[in-house]
């Protein structure tokens, strides 16, 4: 069995302790390994994938979209609340499942539909086999997929991420209108939000920061000094756009914040 998982469980420690008491040895601290152990354990008993997944869903608490290969079959399932995205596509050579529709686009495939919350699918040569394993009384999206995680050209549960972010920008202006000369994004994930704010406010949109495409994430660096040094390499102000102008700076979210201490 090979397994890939997107999400986060909230009962990982209790499940891990239970299986360790039964003699299971874990090689990682990832909750993905816990999911794999539950599936393998239940499949050894029932020799039925649907029953194994049903028991797994019953035991897991949290968000998960899972893709697994068992022998020569590919199976995928999504948590009953639909917290994490998962979609199905078709290519010239068969079917594919992915967290984002843009992965299907990159393969030259055709987006078919989202995996339904609580649904288990099996990819076969002649089509998709579907089993509705569990149903919840309501849906629960991870808002950060729409705000930050997903690419803006992805479609999640029928909604284009770019349009969702643009509408969030509209709502931000309605809640917090500010008068200024320009609206500018923190690239890249703040761009759609800023475009929406500019549309709603009527204030000109102009890029005030240019991103170095070869820099990775900076907020996860361990010290403030390291983060500031990395940000200076990652983002450079367009001084000609900013000089003598008041600016509304729009980002997708604030992970670390503090009072401004630099003037361009």
Description:
The structure is a single chain. Helices cover 34% and strands 27% of the residues. The chain has 264 residues and is α+β, with helices and mostly antiparallel strands. The protein has two domains: 2-140, Aminohydrolase, N-terminal nucleophile (Ntn) domain (Glutamine Phosphoribosylpyrophosphate, subunit 1, domain 1), CATH 3.60.20.10; 160-250, Rossmann fold, CATH 3.40.50. The protein has a five-stranded antiparallel β-sheet with strand order 1-2-3-7-8, covered by helices on one side. β9 (155-156) and β10 form a beta hairpin. The termini are far apart. The mean pLDDT is 91.
Spans of at least 5 consecutive residues whose pLDDT stays below 50 are: none
SSE series: EHHHEEEEHEEEHEEHEHEEHEHE
The strand line-up of the biggest sheet is 1-2-3-7-8
Give the second-level CATH assignment, the architecture of the largest domain.
4-Layer Sandwich
Write the layout of secondary structure elements.
Elements: E1 2-9, H1 12-21, H2 31-46, H3 49-59, E2 62-70, E3 73-78, E4 87-91, E5 94-98, H4 101-106, E6 110-114, E7 119-124, E8 127-132, H5 143-149, E9 155-156, E10 159-160, H6 161-175, E11 182-185, H7 191-201, E12 204-205, E13 209-211, H8 224-234, E14 235-237, H9 239-242, E15 247-250
Parallel strand pairs: 11-12, 11-15
Antiparallel strand pairs: 1-2, 2-3, 3-7, 4-5, 4-6, 7-8, 9-10, 13-14
Helix pairs in contact: 2-3, 6-7
